[in-house]
Amino acid sequence: MPTPHLAAKPGDIADIVLLPGDPLRAKLIAERFFESPTLYNEVRGMLGYTGTYKGRRVSVQGSGMGVPSISIYAHELISEYGVRTLIRVGTCGSMQPQVGIRDLVLGQSASTDSSTVSRRFPGMTFAPTADFHLLHRAWQSANERGFKVHVGNVLSTDTFYDVDQPDGWKTWASHNVLAVEMEAAGLYTIAARLGARALTVLMVSDSLVTHESLSAAERQTGFADMALAALDAAIG
Ligand code: HPA
Question: Which of 26, 65, 157, 178 is the most buried (most CB within 10 A)?
Fold first, then answer.
C-alpha cells in the first residue's frame, strides 16, 4: 500500500535500498549505475528508483536531511515495503585531524544530540549501531576502490548551524567521534527497532579542523565512487 510519503505499489521497491539525502543524488545513482531504472516515487520531490545492479534488484531513495526525515522513510520502507537492508550514502564534516577531505567514514556507531533517539530511553542511553556484515563488506569494497577508510563513531546532529555553541563539536571530537552528519543515528535506531540491517557510508566533504571544503563538482565525483562501494557492500 502507498504510504503518506511513498507512492510505490507493493513490490515496486527492492529489499535493498541506498539512501542519499539529496533526491537528485538518487537520480544520479539510478541513471548511472542501475540497469533499467524505473521511478517509483516523486512525492515531495523525494525521488525513488528501482533497477538492477550486477544482476541484483536494488532501489535508491532520497531521505531528506536530518534524523526525523530519514526516520520517516526508513520506517515506511521497512514496515510497509519489506526492505531488509538500508545503506545511507552521504557527506560529513571531519572532526579529527587524521580524517581528511575525500576520505570515507563508515559509521560503526552514531552518537546524537537528537531527542528523537533519547526520548525512547528516558534516563538511559541507547547506542545506535551499524550491521557488522554490511560494515565489513563496505570496508573491503571501499579499500578495493582505493579510498582511505576510517571506521568509528559519527555524530548525527540536529543543528547544522550551531550559532550559540560554535565549539560544541569539540566535546564529541575529544571522545574520538570521527565526523559529523545528520541522519545515521535515526536510521540505525529505526532499523534496530523494526528488525532491518543498516549502515552509513560517508565521504568527507569538509573539515571542522582545517576548514577545507570540497566544491559541489568535486563532491559529485567522489560521491559516485562511494555509491559503488556501498552498492557492492549491499549486494555482498
Ligand atoms: N555538519 C553537519 N552535517 C554535515 C556537515 C557538517 O559540517 N558536512 C556534511 N554534512
Answer: 26
In sequence order, what are the residues at sequence separation of 6 or more whose Cβ sits closer than 8 angstroms to the Cβ of residue 193? none
Asked whether the beta carbons of 8 and 41 are under 8 A apart, the reply is: yes
Grid cell of 23 as nine digits: 533526491
Q: Is 22 in the pocket of ligand 1 (CB under 6 A)?
A: no
Closest atom of ligand 1 to 157 CA is 2
Distance 180 CA to ligand 1 centre (A): 5
Distance (angstroms) between ligand 1 centre and the Cα of 12 equals 32
pLDDT at 184 > cutoff 90: yes
Centre of ligand 1 to C-alpha 133, Å, is 26
Domains and CATH numbers, the chain: 16-235 (3.40.50.1580)
97 alpha-carbon distance from chain centroid: 22
- How high is the pLDDT of residue 112? 98
Q: How confident is the model at residue 19 (pLDDT cuts 50, 70, 90)?
A: very high
Q: What is the pTM of this model?
A: 0.97
Please pick, among 15, 22, 131, 206, the residue that the annotation labels catalytic: 206
Q: What is the pLDDT of residue 229?
A: 97
How far apart are the C-alpha atoms of 209 and 36, rounded to whole Å? 42
